[in-house]
## 1
Amino acid sequence: MSSSQLPANIEWQDEPQSDPEATNNNSNNNNNAMMTDSGSVTSHNLIDDDDGFIMEHRSSSADSVHSSSNGLGSSSNHGSSSNHTGGTSSRGRNVKRKSADQEFAERESRQVNQARACMIILFISITGLLAQGVYFFVRFGEIEEFHDQYDHDKDEVLIEIGDTLQNTLSAIDTFMDAVEAEHEAGVADPNIDELEWPRVLVQDFSVRGNKVLTLSRGSLLVIQPKVEAGQERAEWEQWALENHEEWIEETLRIQQSSPLYQGEQVEIPTNYTGGISPWIRTPSLYDLQGIMPQDAPGPHFPIYQSTPIAPTPDGQVYGYDAYNPLSSWREPLKEMTENYVATLGPTMNLGDETDPYKQGEQQRIQGFLERIVADDIDSTQPTVTLNYPLINNANSYVDVYTEIQRRREAGLDVESYFEIVGSITVHLFWKELLRDNLPPGHDGMMAVIGNDCGQVFTYQFFGPNVEYLGNGDLHESEYAENKDLNYRVYLHELINTPNGTAANETRYYLQNKQVYSGFRLSDEYCPYWIHLYGSDIMRDDYETLDPFIFMILTVTLFICGCCVFKGYDWVSERRTQKVLRVAAQSTAVVSSLFPKVVRDKLFPTMAAEEKKRKESATMNAKMRLKSFMGENSAHTRKGSMTGGRSAGGNDDDDKSSTMDEQERRQDEAADALAQANAPIAELFTDTTVLFADIAGFTAWSSVREPAQVFTLLETLYGAFDKIARKRGVFKVETIGDSYMAVTGLPDPRADHALVMAKFARDIRDKMNDLTIKLARTLGPDTDDLQLRIGMNSGPVTAGVLRGDKSRFQLFGDTVNTASRMESTGVISRIQASASTMELLRDAGKAHWVTRRDGGVQAKGKGTIQTYWVEPGAKAGGSNASVASSTSASDDDDNFEALDEKTLRLVEWNVAIMKKLIQQIVARRETREQLPRLNMLRKVSMMPHSGKQSFNTSSRPAGEIPLDEVQEVVELPEFDPRLSRNAVDAESIELSEEVMLQLKEFVSIVAVMYRNNPFHCFEHASHVTMSVVKLLSRIVAPSDHAIQVAQQGNVGMAVSLHDHTYGITSDPLTQFACVFSALIHDVDHQGVPNSQLIVENSPLDSIYRGKSIAEQNSVDLSWKLLMEDQFEALRNIICATPDDKVHFRHLVVNCVLATDIMDKDLKNLRNQRWEKAFSEQSRLGESSQVNTNRKATIVIEHLI
């Protein structure tokens, strides 16, 4: 075995030195090195003390350096040391060999046993964890199947109940339509002796009723005509007595012959007075035999026609008034008649009724139902009545309910046209409603049914069958808190109605279901709900022994694996013993051949390698940090050499480094990048951190387009970055409108505070210059944006947070304090902490610093003293605030030159209007290029050839602007050829004369504004900017229209044009909107119109006390535009008198739309809105007129 193949844990036995003097020296040092368990080197010395005893001495590898200094020649005297102290020395050597062998064997055995124990523990742990994992995996799978089965059963139940309810309502609605159609036909036919309700006998009632009962799973269908008190009641009782035998005989005949009826087969009872009660009855105590007094108030809803029928030998049901004050059905019938809805009455047979009259009523109804229901239906089960309104004119509309609601909302009479003439009532057993909703084998789900009036009862499903559990909520309590195993829904939500379809698209029980358009099921009177719960019966079907079986199987497999591992371990141990024996022999050979110093070089210790690795990691951390910073570091170092020196100026000399030094550092950093395990971080003790925030940016950006926001930030930050490179400042990051920079890293510099102060001054001044220039393109208030700057000096931790997006970050209290300096500062000023102030003072710049009065309250810091910094201030000079001063506003009559800010607003407005005028001219030239349109245009312009003739008066004689308000402003129709052959607006060059007149007009408008809050020229510019922004959000059809028109699909292009109501297809309309925004508050006095009326303003009489300020603004601005000095501007805006009229209408409507307090204008807008979006209101009107009406609404809402 070669020396490189020897195990690292083998001990080395060193030979003694031949030199006696060296031997004595070695008695205080280590001559014998060995590898310990951890891989570190220990040495063994045999020391002969004064008494002649041989002692074993252990020392660390650090003490064995002396052995290497003795060279390699000491091995030649190996044998001489054996005679040291005679026989005692030999005995000592034997002790040493025995100790080394024993230690070697013990260490190897210990390591093997430790590894074996770890593996056994690991196998046991993995077995236990995996067994638990398998158990819970299988168990959770069963639980998931249980939940899935519950969800499936719940869906099936709700869908089936919804279908049954919807089919019931639809069947009754169809039945009502057929009855009413037959009745209307009988009334219209003079050959048929047909009476009006309530004296109407439904023909073929039993046959039709059977169909309704089949679809609804009902047990009894009843017609209850609405009978008013007095004469109508007397007439109906007489009529009922005379006409009852016909329908009773028909019903009995069908009932006895049809297999659908499985109840009692009956004949006409002998105790009937002709088979039916001739009087409207009301309940006496425990029966229904009381005759309703003749003077009892109406209306009455007597039970009359019904199917099936049955004898009631102990009392009459027919003729019973369900609307009497003691009846259980009075309230649901009242809700039905008042709100035109179907209602569910109270559930009977719950045993919860305490009123003796209602108890008697329910007992009589139960006795009646007992005679007619099938043998497999328990008449003592809970039952409920569904009351459906019977109305006249039911066939006049497809969706009568929607029409009734519309009439009510419109304040129209409903009762006279849709009169409720009775009720169609179906008796339903809840059990029948729930039956056959689930397939066999799906057992255990519990259904708790109740209403908001306090009735609650419980059923349980057993496949297609259901079992009534009793009154009250009887579900198992453990499922009440589990949201996955209980679900509640109102019954009226299970019906797919037109007005609920959009809101209920996500409800699975309404998907793929026909829309029901009849009377809605009431959601106000005691609405019923159903709450579905899981149960132990359901869960038991899914709780099996599978988890235990799979767990035991897993444990068995791992036990088998452990046995295999044990066998492998036994084989491996035998092999290891053989290898160790060979290694021991090889060790003895190597020990006899090589001295210790050679062995150390052949087999370097782990401790030495670890120490070297740590030293390398510590040495290269900073260089890795610099390497990550890359070009920024290079720029920073370059700035330190160039910009840093210039920044100091006459103040201080900046430090510089040579290019060779930079290249050496970069090479070292590149080499260090290979070691990426250690964190890239470093502490920099001397730095200055700066935060700069744009004050007012949030409000400014909220009214700008994204492109404008990024134009501002890119311009500012780009300029700041150039200054940073020049000054040698390192930019850390930008967060929104906040700029963060630091000096003093990655290369330390003593003047970091001084450089940062100059940098802060430079970016503040640059900010002020750039915002003034950008105001001409980015709009008003841009020049009001200023920086708020804070600085702090101290140590920071800098490093790279590695991950998906690695970032250079600063941490520490210095950073937090710098942020507080910025947040508590003042716009356009530089605030610094005490630490920065001291550095500037030490640099001889104390005259730059001014103490801030009172200090500031900083979050997490309390009250701290801060300082204002103004680099470049002269010593002994004033350190007053650098805030810009504002002069007092001029008087209203002062028409001198505009101030600088107003001039910038004028230039911005001129630029906006120039673009729109270019679009007007481009559209006009495009139209002139089309031969046919050009010919028509020439014909229309023949009377106006030559110089355009305008009426230059402020308004038509005898009228005020309010009289000119148009309900519909006509916009030109869309012609796809204009888009296909459009002239580029940017290619249009406006004459110098037009531009001068445009600028002069806007300037005069600015002067005409008074200096009132929210009614000044600056506010008007804001409104103009908002209008421009909103116009840009409207989709222009031109690009799509060109493509579609080229393909020949002109209809699609027109449709897209109509989608925008034609606004963006007409540049003159857009210009009118912007023009109106500019002039809408001209000469506004800053008080509302009502105040002008109170003060008897002269304008009140001129404008008839209506929209005074707005009409005055229109007149003054229009008069100004009509002056001769703006003739070229007028002609380029409006080429024809028609254009002028169109432009005038737009301006008047837009400006007067700003008066939101005038009731007449408000009513006009409301009527316009109603007519625009109501099909009924615009019958017979062309689509183009309605499109223009909608465009007028949008235009007025823009401003």
## 2
Amino acid sequence: MEVALAKIRPQTSSSLAHQAAPANLLAAIETTLNSQKSDGSPTAYFAALLTTLESSCKDEEILLKEGDLLPAELYLLCLIAPFVPVPVVRTHLSHVLDLTAPLFPLLTQHNAPALRSQLGLYNAIFKAVDHSQLNIQGIRQCFASILDLCLDLRPKVRKRAQDVVKDVLASPPTPLAIHPYASRVSDWIFQHLSEASTGSMFKKERGTADKAIHILALLRPVIIHLPPSNLPQIASLLLSLPRLGDSYVAQSSYSILAELFSLAEEATSDIKPKNILDSVLSTPPSKSDQVLAPAWSQVLGEALAATYSKTNPTTDEELLKVHLSKAHAALTPCLESSHAPTRKAAAQSYRALCACISSSLVLSAVQEVERDKPQNIVLKLITFLTHSLAAIGFIQVNAIPDLLEIAAALFQALGNFKVVTDHLDGTAAEILLLPFLRHVSALRVQKTFAHKETADQFLGVAMKVVGPEVIFRDDVLPLNLIPNQSYLPYKHFVAYFVPLSEQLFELQQTAELNGREGEAKIWVVLLAQIWNGMGGYVRSHPGDISAALTTEFAQLLSNLLYSQVELRPAILKALRLLVEGVLSNIASNTFFCYCFQKPIGPVLESQSESWLAVFFNLYGNLNAHNEASTRTLVGEVIIVWASICSEDQIAKAFSNVLGLFKGSIGKQNIGVSMDLFLHLLPYLTTGQVKEIFSLTLSEEILNSADGAVVKRAYRLLGKIVEIRGNEIKVEAVGVLERLNAIGDEGTGKGNAGAKKDRLHLLCLLVSLLPSDAMHMIPSLVPEAVLGTKEPSEKARTEAFELIVAMGKRMEAGGVVKMALLESDDAEMADAVEAPANAQEFLTMIAGGLAGGSPHMISASITAISRVVFEFKDTMSHDLHGQILSTILVFLTSSANREIIKSTLGYIKLAIHTLPLPVLHLHLQAVVQGLLKWSGDRKNHFKMKVRHIFERLLRRFSWGDVHTCLDNSDGEGAKVLFAIKKRKDRVKRKKAARANHEEEEKDTRREDVLYGSESELDDSEDELDDTVTKQKPKAMAREGGARLRIDDDDPMDLLGSAGVTHGRQRKKKAGQDAGKFRTDDEGRIVIEVANDLDNFTQDTPMEDAYKESLVSVDGFTRGPNGRVKFNKDTKKRRREATEEDLVDMDASELSPKRAKKKEGKSQGLGSEFKAKRAGGDTKKGGIDPYAYVSLGQAAKRGSKGIAGKKK
């Protein structure tokens, strides 16, 4: 309740009347309760609101507009009522009815939000009343009014009324199982559904269809709470609704019928699913109906499953054949639909159809399997699936995965029937479906088959049903590697795949010796695939272990673990699944639960000790860094295998690990034994755990120079305290004193890698402290506070958890004995004790604000922020104010970046968390302190401050924040105005985006209803005759052609005349005619020069083509036909200038210059020589070289390194 009220209180200054009115009313009520020194309980709020409502109802005119008092009272009553104690509601029921029941007609007509509030109030009332009060006339009338509102035209009102009915029926008064009003609701639904289902009025009157939709929306959630005796008549009405022609009503009816079948069997015992099945089969929809077809397919499958369930002993076999044949014929078109949900629903119904197959149908199918045209439904299904996999229609609509799912369901259904005759012995799936299995396997290897993954899933189902020994037969899916034999499931792997892996290993070795690395990799992949399959064998057949896990096979596995690194993950996974499968069988078999050891079997019991030794050795040989994932797998296997070991075997394993631990103290391999202790910890005895705890807590371990050892030690201690702490009765005080002493003397406390685990251990120990040992907490505060600044995120998280744990332990109560604290302060020494609470803990942390380093001050502010956030509800307003005023001092006086960053974080938290009265007292100091750092870009404080101001403006109005500025602070005013502008801009963009989306929705709806063609109304949409004139300069700046608007008809921009309407200067008719001469008859003569005469043999046509490609004015076309003009580069301009100079007549040049030009030979790279510079500019100066291509240098016959010439 307090959370909901906290959201209302800040709305007192809201500009929206419907938000401000409840907030002001709540403030007035709380002021009254505070003056009366009330406890502020839900009962007090409820009584005050009833008194206020009573005075409002006595007025001559009841006001129901936004901002009036009555809607605000109902809103708060709706909010408070769920938290009011049930006896209080029952006592004041008559008073509440007298005040609120007469408001239903008035609220229904005038105020929908207030009506929703009243519905929420009655939702809480109906849940609180007892059985006898439900028969009161007033409350029965109110429930009738709520039922009528379930058909209200307003969606929110209708939804709230339906929720009330659903919640009322879902919570019947004790000890009733069905609510007394359930029968009344059922009759009401039946009556209105009957009215809606009479005739084809859906086509003429849309209101009737809407009414049926509203009733079905109510029926869907409440049908599980209706009396079972009333369900048959409702089901019959639901079957009649699809015939009325409305697709949505039909879809809803079928969906509700499907949910009706999913109810408990005792709830639907009165319903006759056979009649529903006949009705559904008689009205199949079109496969193109994307709304109705999925729902129809779903209800058909549910009806089949309900009619021919396995628990029904009286199944009519002839009727079953007829229904299955009709269902198959009706579902086939839906399976060919291009609509994916329709296909999925049809496939689901086919799965239900497969589950209905009886033993007589299976036996008949086995007898008819040799016929050309079988009549059995099972054989028809198999034939249909076989032909459909290659049918174009199913391939085009991507229905192959659905067909394979149906085939998998048929495989599972037929796998449950054992057929034994004179010539046959096996499951029906093996006898009937192996040809289909071969067909799928042939399709799977085709390159054009696009559903290999689904085919693999189907083959996996088939393998689970008939076993791998059948799948890998020579006539089904032969491996063609070694001769096939008949084995038990898991023994099949040992006898077939293990020799195969040995042969493949020999082939791999041979290929590596002969240098065929590619072939060797192929054998490696095949070996990995074989051993990855071992886990599947173990998971599917855990009962076959004793016959297959022989001593020889166990030795082979252990050798592979040691020698074959690539196979370790697969073998370890299989060994883990081996034990987990056995344990799952034990858990599912209650007969063996009394004795844990017997069902495991002699094989695992005898081998468990040896396997633990193998795992221990393997774990020790693995590298902790390079093989971490494999180490994790080995640890998981150790935990699983240790769970099946006896106490003697665990004791032997513990003694071995303990000896390794004691012998490795001071060595690098001590970490292995500590990890093994972690894995064995759940299965050790109390004495063994105590011994490990005392050894790990020693100074030799915790002060080790190896950081990894210290990290493992703290982790092991934490796990012991967390898992077995209550058993070994850890003395938290002694352990903490020991840890503090070791940390102060050695290096363990300062080990960066062990910080996370040490803080986690301290967090666990703090929760175990007794009430008279609170003096230990102050010694932990500095370490926890400094831990919030650790580089590791996990360490920081544990530090915050430690701070919260200490705060909660202090809040739980106790005594802090000041005399036991280590302090040089005489007053602290003289103090006797102090009560332990959150305020005292906060005082301890606040001591760090007086620290000598900015790092400590910043960490203390961060820790205070976490404590305030966690215990904000239990702290007084005075304490909040003291903390805020203290931290604001650092904001205005400190210049350290680390301190300011933490301070800004606390202020952000305070604005979000602290009560408004506390914030309002310090608002001016907060605003002025933040503005001091609003221009700091170097430390990235500008964005932080802006974000904080945005949050501040959510809790305070703009005027409150702006009044906190000094009159002389112009820069601060600019900052605030900029933030306000930005906020307003975001609001405008959001509103514009919402309006745009709404317009798009309207446009799409109009396009659907009225078409997408443009229909212009000349009488209403004509453009204005006056056109704004622009200055010539402005027109020149804008550039481009403008469409000229005139009084003509609307211009067709797609027509050829559209290009002539560009905005340009109008020319007078005939003004260009004077430029042409006329003949004797007055006709214009236009002389066209023949450009071909200008071309001579000296200017060939191919030069013109080359010019268009390489010149400045040339262009090229891209792959898509787009024109790309050549860039106007300096090189092209220089080449064009040189060509012009070459083409000039020699007589135009001076004789001396012409002679010089003729006698001078052009050197290599001369075209790149700078005309007025000394060379290319380089980092070290000027480079007097020109760089040309190697091809050009080769043509000149140069020797040596081509491309450089001085």
## 3
Amino acid sequence: MDLDGARLAVERASVGLAHPAHRAASEQTLLEFRRSPHALPACRHILRTSGVVEACFQASTTLRDAALRDWAALPPEERAGLRQFCLSVLLGSNDNANAAAAPASTMPVVTSQLISVLAVMIKRAWLDVDETSLGTGATQSDYQRVALRVHEHRSRMLAEAEQAVSMSNTPHARVVGLNLFSAVITEFAPSTASPMHLPWDFHERCRVSLQNDFLSAFFSHGVGLAKTAAQTAFAPQGTDDGICLASLRLINTALSWDFQFTGQHGGGFGFGLSDKSAKGENSRASDGLSCDAVKIAPGVGWRDALLLPGAIDWVFTVYASGREAGAASRQSGVASGNTRIKNITSVTANARTAVSNMCALAGDVFPNKTEDPTEQTRRAHFGKCASSLSNALTPARQVVANARAGVGDAEETMADDARSIAALSAIHAPGDFFETSSSSFADTGASPTPLASTLGELTVALLDAGALLLENEGGALDEALRSCMEAWANLAERSRAGQEVGTFVGGGGAVDTDCPFPGQVETSRACAAVFETYLRAGLVAAASAAHEEDDGQEEEGKAGAAALDERLSLAARVGRAAPEESLALLCAAMEGKKNALAQALATQNVDPSETLEELWWLARLTPHVLCDPFEGEFPLPPESIAECTRRWTVNFGDGGNASGQKSPVETASTSYLNVVLLCLDENALAQGAVSPRLIETLCWGASRWVDTYLMPEDVGGSAHASVFGANRPSLSALGLVGDGESRVRGGIAKLANPSPFSEEGGGVHAVDALLKVALVALTRFPGEQSAQRVAAKMLLPALTRRRALCRACGSLESWRSLMECASGALGGMSGGFGNQSVPGSIPTSPTFPPEIHRLVTEAVCRAAEGLAGEQQCQEYITRALFAAAAGLRQIATNPDAVKHPTGELFAVCVLEALRGAARASAARSQAAVFAFFKEHFVSLLVLQRAGAESAQVSRLSLKLTEEFVEAQACFLAPSNASVLCGHCMKVIETYRVSGRGVLGDHGTTQQQQQQGSLRKERSREAYKEVKALLRMLTHVSSVDADVTASSSLDSGPNSEKLSEAAERGGSMRGGSSRGGGAFAGVFGP
């Protein structure tokens, strides 16, 4: 092979990639070069002799690909030679002592790529000596001998690199060696491994081997070199030829490893407390009770390397020195682009990352309480981290001002250190943050300032600087504030969780449930102050957003709302740490803004925009604080909110305190409902103060409140608060009087002071008011589908989720108005069908979108669960579905009207309404719903045939049948099952006759080009239809019923017809897979 000719061709092609005219030919040349069987010697020659950076880069990339491709065919000597070649190029050495160093050794981009190539080769050769090669007859000594040989093979590859670096004895060589070990760790990590076309087992075995045998050695190697470099004054200033910087990178790469199988506890809280830990015997604060924070748990084997006195102190020293050097350089007027400034910034950034990693240490790396009863090791480590972070973030207002001005790396410092505090809060004991003794700050040389003080100052400074303003969203201030709020939330939740699991042991050796967990009182006070500041800053930010053309939520859609809710949920976690104070602040804010709005509306030439925006923000925040976060199966009040109710009841009883004041939870709920009832203020509606956006948020929050507090059934509710104290509150105080039907029907005597939101104590009035709010959202703003959707999809389902609520709804005039609204939207009782006396007339367009019809009708029919008798249910369902029945009859009378766009839309709305009714089928309403559908089976088939040319009507007809079968199958008697199966057979037959499932041939090539997009669309429609059809058959054939009915149905006509129809559409296994049932007689063999 002509090596010089190959070099020239690769150089021309590499340079030609930058020129559009030569790009195609250059790409072809490089691809042929990469596929060449002689690529390895050509790559070596290019890297030794070429001075073209682009050519050397292409050669290094091709060297990796060719080596991996030909690895199995290469002898061991050639594999080792490839590694030695890469090292020689990287270190600038040469086999010929008289020859000049390879030009590639001076090209940073090429050396970086060669380091990656060498790491890949080391990994590829890692299992060349395999410990699994022994047969079944091998003895223990055989395994030990092979394991020793395997370890020697792997150690030799790493040692040859270290030996070459040591022989070079230059700072550049030392940096190359450190970077190589960092690349090896990166390559062996599964998430950053290069593709090698090998099974996953290869990568996993390499990972386990490196973690168990070499990772800690890499870390110690980096620490040793970094400590030596840090002892000089040059390292923090970045003038040590990059040794300290490379060492820090190696340390950070090692600590960023995804540690597994290191003996860490695996409890239910992530880094949880085991059963033994729950008793306080050997738990450690670093076990943590939060699973959200990133934690580094390297295990016991790393304890000496990380926690011995003096092991990592130099990291904090380098970080502090780097900050000081950077500040001094900026004060002296050195330009930001200066090489010295860049070196200082790089060293400081990597030292800051190392400090962040130290803050994230958790788990078994710390001794447990059996090994270290006073937790002195952990507390000393916490003191070092806290002191370093406090020095970096003090004074907080100056740090925030520098970040806003973009001074140096102030933004990164503030954000990273705030994130480090959040990591500490998720790992260490809350009491450590308020520690004022010198024990936690031993050997740090700093005054024992509690880290909580630094955190509080930073949080307040960020809020005062406008971190919540729209202009700062997604910036450094916003990110730092999120970390601070997460830290406070972690402290609050861990202090409560520590008390609940009993990890705090009193002086007598037993768990003390009445004594606060260390740091709990201080955390509550601090969180109350932080929440007050957050509330004030949030209102300021909301008022300023009133004058923005777009507040970001509409533009970003669901993503923007989700991001806002994420921020508010963090604030809510902080506020719930001190519910008495936080709820009082929310009440005062809501009442104040509500009164301000009334005053603005009563005064001419006063713009209420800011007040409305503040109310909108409060309406979004309050449900996060007050209501269930929907993280479990049943809606329950948050633990601290329930505990607040318990404390109030124990101290003041049912009647409130001496001045008649109710509990903070009840007061806050009442205040929030008063804000929601702004939707019913005709004056505000008439003046445009109540917008669809405000109604949408109020309906969203009201639905969460209803699920949490309104007429709760006995699935926990407020009752779980009673377990936190010896004095059990009364049923009335816990909100359990008349909440569930079992208590009302069981004859529990009505107490004098029932729960304010129970069925006995005013809950019905709340239901009535919220139903009126839903009506306003549905009818007041035609075309505002977002507000309609929230009311129909969230508020109405919440108001019909429990039987007590359904019972209350059925007795209210507002519910009957809602039913009339649903019927009127379809043109029923309000005359919306148009002139039916004119033949061929087209139904008028409905008021609601189709989806709203389904949601509203589902809620209306679900309320039938609150009725007592079967006859009442029958009458109620008939009245609720009157408009849908009238629409079916009209379509059956005039099926051609469906071909008109307006008629098609009407048919779609009717089908959607019926889908809602089918979904609402439950124990009490099932019979009435089935009777309604049975009566209109013929009309439904007519509608399916009439809409055969409409993809939407055809699909909804099949989905309606599918959902109806799914909802009814578990309730039906064998006789009704036969009727239902007969209808399913007719639906299938109608679909077959329509030919919608047949796409036809492809046609000519020209027709394919013209109708390609139409065919794809038709194919998607057919897929949805057949999917609904198959799901319907699945629901029918997988339900067991009375086996004795099978024989009486086997010979029925439906069996033969349906089997015949199924055979025409494909094979179908009939009957239940569990062997029988009423449906098996129709669908079975």
